[in-house]
Design goal:
Blueprint (H helix, E strand, L loop, with lengths): L1 H125 L4 E4 L9 H14 L16 H4 L20 E4 L3 H17 L3 E5 L2 E5 L7 E3 L2 H10 L5
Antiparallel strand pairs: 1-2, 3-4, 4-5
Helix pairs in contact: 4-5
Length: 263
């Protein structure tokens, strides 16, 4: 029993020492684990910092690159804007020039039309003393005096005496008042068969063209009358219609459309 108590006492006396040793070991392990975690955290922070630094450097490089690109784009845009401004100014300048030229062209056309009208009036005035006798038979040994005698003879026939020095303002009214239309015999010529003759004003080239077109319109559109007077061309649909003074080919075209040809 005494021995058992002794062993028990000895065993119990060793327990504190074992607890102290175990506790110390545990503290050492805890300290080492804590230090390791701190080291890992520091390393993590360094890794994160390094990674963030690398990312920031990369971002700064990219930003600088993009900044240069943006500057180049801005410069290009400024160049385009300058070019557009120049082209706009050029366009406006050319537009003003074109407007000026068009206005001048309009005035020039008006002036040309006025000059043409004056020329026509002068031509008409110069031809007032001229007559045309068409379809006159040719004579042997025909001379100027012979032709003057023919015209004088014709003037007497239509009751319009004509002096050798004064031939002007003759009209084709003999065929309207007489059933016996003008022919070679009224010139004192004896030919077989007798040939009709036509006396008309000597028209300007423009009036002659209008007279030709007016006669074509008369035949195609059943106009009853087409004649000239004082170098001007006239049309009349019938006895009750107004007299139409023909002044241009456009007018004749319009009259043709307003009065289609009858079959």
């Amino acid at each position: 029993m005494a021995d058992d108590k002794l062993e028990k006492s000895l065993s119990e006396s060793n327990l504190p020492d074992m607890d102290i040793e175990t506790s110390s070991s545990a503290r050492n392990i805890t300290t080492r684990n804590k230090r390791r975690r701190e080291d890992d955290f520091v390393q993590f922070k360094e890794d994160i910092t390094s990674m963030m630094t690398a990312m920031m450097d990369s971002q700064m490089t990219e930003i600088k690159k993009n900044t240069r690109t943006l500057e180049e784009i801005k410069q290009t845009n400024r160049s385009i804007e300058d070019s557009m401004s120049f082209l706009s100014a050029q366009y406006e300048e050319y537009r003003l020039k074109i407007d000026t030229l068009e206005a001048a062209a309009v005035e020039d056309r008006k002036y040309i039309a006025s000059l043409e009208s004056k020329i026509v009036d002068l031509q008409r005035e110069n031809r007032k003393s001229n007559i045309e006798i068409k379809n006159v038979p040719t004579q042997k040994s025909e001379s100027k005096d012979t032709l003057i005698n023919l015209v004088s003879h014709l003037g007497n026939t239509i009751s319009c005496p004509i002096n050798k020095s004064d031939i002007k303002d003759l009209y084709r009214d003999f065929n309207v008042k007489n059933n016996d239309h003008l022919s070679a015999k009224h010139l004192g010529l004896k030919v077989s068969p007798d040939m009709p003759i036509y006396v008309a004003e000597q028209l300007t080239p423009q009036a002659a063209r209008l007279h030709f077109l007016a006669r074509e319109l008369k035949r195609a559109n059943s106009y009853k009358y087409c004649w000239t007077s004082y170098g001007r061309v006239y049309l009349r649909k019938d006895d009750n219609s107004p007299i139409i003074h023909v002044t241009s080919e456009t007018q004749i075209e319009r009259l043709g459309k307003e009065n289609p040809a009858t079959k």
